[in-house]
Amino acid sequence: YWFRWLSVQGAPRLALRLHARRGDPFAELMGGPRGVADPYPLIERLRGEGRLIRTPIAWATFDHELCRSILRDNRFGVRTTESFDIPGPMQKLAKHSPLPPNPVEPPSMLVIDPPEHTRMRKPVASAFTPRAIGRLRDRVETVTAELLEALPAGGSADLITAFAAQVPIAIISEMLGFPDSDKERFLQWGDRMTPLLDVGISWRAHRRALRAMEVMNDYLDTHIRRLRRSPGDDIFSALVTAGELDEFELKASASLLMGAGFETTVNLIGNGVVQLLEHPEQLARLRAEPELWPNAVEEVLRFDSPVQTTARTAVCDVEIAGTRVRAGDTVVLSLAGANRDPAVFPEPDRFDVGRANAKEHLSFSSGVHVCLGASLARMEGVYALQALFDRFPDLALDGPPRRRELFTLHGYEQLPVRLGQRA
Ligand code: HEM
User: Which atom belonging to ligand 1 lies closest to the Cα atom of 335?
Assistant: First the structure.
């Protein structure tokens, strides 16, 4: 653990800390309290520095057009352990301490390039067809209704644990054939492993994440054995029996789907609740024009992106925005910054559920890694938010919401609410 932390996290952590102390806005955005609480003023400062800027650990852009074109450019790839100006010998050290299959290391499709990426993504993508998602619609509706029924009408609750996290975890658990009783474990593993998406995390957070990986690995071994003996009609049983992916690849895919399936959608729902409560005139508009709900969800995704950044590494020397980016250099792509780019979204800091081009946000990324679960996430977001506000029209905050201390994933860990009266 120690070696690995030092090689992939320690160096960027030191750089970010030193620069944050000197007031560098990028270092604060990626590793300071302001980056968690309200990243947007920092993003605007950085946007003012240019379309492509040099930061203490990498290049970075906050520009919609540039983010989109880099995501779709095959001269850029995703090689995370070789990113962020980590010295070569340190990268080698990390490779000598292999980890159990997990969402953020190869062969997880998230962090590999074509052609391997295509081979890993194809069998999983076949489970996410519009027909398959359509079949899940009834389940999302039922799960949402059951959860709302269980909330103490007239009382108080933490909306994240009691609702926002429960909708996506229930659906992804079913898709992966996991028993309902194991949901709490997944929530715990997700909580421990998501800091790995950030750059320069602490030694303690890193150790907790790697331990969770090991426990999850054992769990998935047993789960795959069970599905081989008696497959269900879930998508993971189909993947296991199809035989296109080996054991290690199956576990990497399952862990990615599990994390991606709920750690992001919980933020969409939570961020949506907060935005709508902070903009009552927008909520009133949705009551008058409920057909706007799908667009409102796009606007929540744009306005407060659940995934704030991703990164790409140049595979050869590339000239972009008049700057030469060398092979091996990493560019941090601020999806949240792209979503507030005034060149694409007029008055970008205004939350407007009727915004005509809200759907042009990059919250689901773009190019070959575009989010596989986007239509599922959209469906969950629309059902969950609309049903919640229909059922509790007087929903109100019951104390300040608390943000998760993460930079890449952006959402709340606590959202205390009063549940108004029944509709
Ligand atoms: C990839 C966002 C929900 C599965 C991604 C990426 C983003 C993203 C930004 C690409 C990262 C990159 O380009 O480096 C989101 C958001 C969600 C969401 C904001 C919810 C609001 C889901 C759900 C699932 C899912 C519900 C599955 C059930 C995946 C997978 C990938 C992915 C498998 C990897 C695709 C690849 O690398 O080819 N997501 N996601 N996501 N997402 Fe999502």
Answer: 9
> Could you identify the atom of ligand 1 that is nearest to the CA of residue 376?
26
Please tell me if the CB atom of residue 371 comes closer than 6 angstroms to any atom of ligand 1: yes
Q: How far is ligand 1, taken at its centre, from the CA of residue 110, in Å?
A: 8
Domain residue limits, the chain? 2-418
- Decide: 123 in ligand 1 pocket, CB within 6 A: no
The Å distance, Cα 138 to ligand 1 centre, comes to 22
User: pTM here?
Assistant: 0.95
Instruction: Find out whether the beta carbon of 310 lies less than 6 Å from any atom of ligand 1.
Output: yes
Half-sphere exposure of 234 (CA within 13 A, CB side): 22
Atom of ligand 1 nearest to the CA of 172: 28
Pick the CATH number of 2-418 from 1.10.630.10, 3.40.50.1980, 1.10.10.10, 2.30.36.70: 1.10.630.10
Dist. CA 343 → ligand 1 center (Å): 25
Please check the confidence at residue 157 and state whether its pLDDT lies above 90.
yes
How confident is the model over 219-278, as pLDDT tens digits?
999 999 999 999 998 999 999 999 999 999 999 999 999 999 999 999 999 999 999 999
Contact 309 CB / ligand 1 (< 6 Å)? no
Looking at the predicted complex, does its ipTM rise above 0.95?
Answer: yes
Q: Widest CA span of the chain, in angstroms?
A: 62
